[in-house]
Amino acid sequence: MKAIAKSSDLMETEDVKENIAFRPISDGTKKKLAQIYDRFCRQHNLKWEKPRYRRVQRLPYIPQESDIDQLINALSNRQGTFLQLLKETGARPGEAWCLKWIDIKPNN
To answer: pLDDT for 37-57, tens place per residue?
Structure first.
């Protein structure tokens, strides 16, 4: 709200709507700003039609194996070993942390 208030008058709903629309931010953030401003308008008895924004679903970032290896090599022995275990087994951190030597099956 502070950023919007700096560049437009909060009592001018069309000015705020235009301000939100032309900001270089994601549609999810624009949706949140519109929700916050909607509450502000209700509190101050201002009439405005809230614009609709849809959040864009993006694929999560998956690092390259070389990036993971660089991270493992940069850590201490204990942390690096733990991350190497997670990488090679696909275990979750909680599962790996609870492992005991008796749980590990030797390769014969």
So the answer is: 999 999 999 998 899 988 888
In angstroms, rounded to a whole number, what is the distance separating the alpha carbons of residues 77 and 81?
6
Q: Report helix angle 65-74 to 77-89, nearest 10.
A: 150
Helix 13-21 vs helix 27-43: crossing angle, to nearest 10: 170
Task: For residue 16, count other CB atoms closer than 10 A to its CB.
Answer: 24
Domain ranges of the chain: 2-43, 65-103
CA atoms of 4 and 48, how far apart (whole Å): 16
* Cβ-based burial of 51 (10 A; exposed 0-12, middle 13-18, buried ≥19): middle
The 3-state DSSP composition of the chain as helix, strand, coil percent (nearest 5) reads: 60, 0, 40
Beta-carbon count within 10 A of 33 CB: 20
Contacts of 91 (CB under 8 A, 6+ apart): 85, 99
pTM above 0.70, yes or no: no
